[in-house]
Amino acid sequence: MAHLRHRKFNTKDTYPEQNLDNDLSQAVVAKGGTTIFLRGQCPQDLDTAENIKSNDPVEQTHKVMSNIRQLVEECGGEMAHVTKLVVYLTDVRHREAVYRTLGEYIKGVYPVCTGLVVVALARPEWLVEIDATAVIPD
Questions:
Q1: Residue 61 in contact with residue 95, Cβ under 8 Å?
Q2: Which domain holds residue 127?
Q3: pTM (2 decimals)?
């Protein structure tokens, strides 16, 4: 593991009433290395800035997380280097679907994660936005 993951847990234990399976931590300790700060990723193509043609929160989350993975890799890292995620949702009813999908990308990574429900994102068709921080070890 790239960093010290303090107090690891899985959301299936924390939220037994929801169908979740996300590996998270209460804290991540990263020493040295190169820090990557990603802007909030939205369900759009990184090269064209075109939105995906879906209003499904699962499909939007797949695009957001694949953008995060692509950017971290382009910067020389890998998903194991992700230390923090902040999830912005426009509807709390999408939380379970979004977090289930997010969990597919962070299995075994254990980042810290904060989730917020907001009134709106920059475009009305966006249901989810996620920003990430990663630290590539020396």
A1: no
A2: 4-136
A3: 0.90
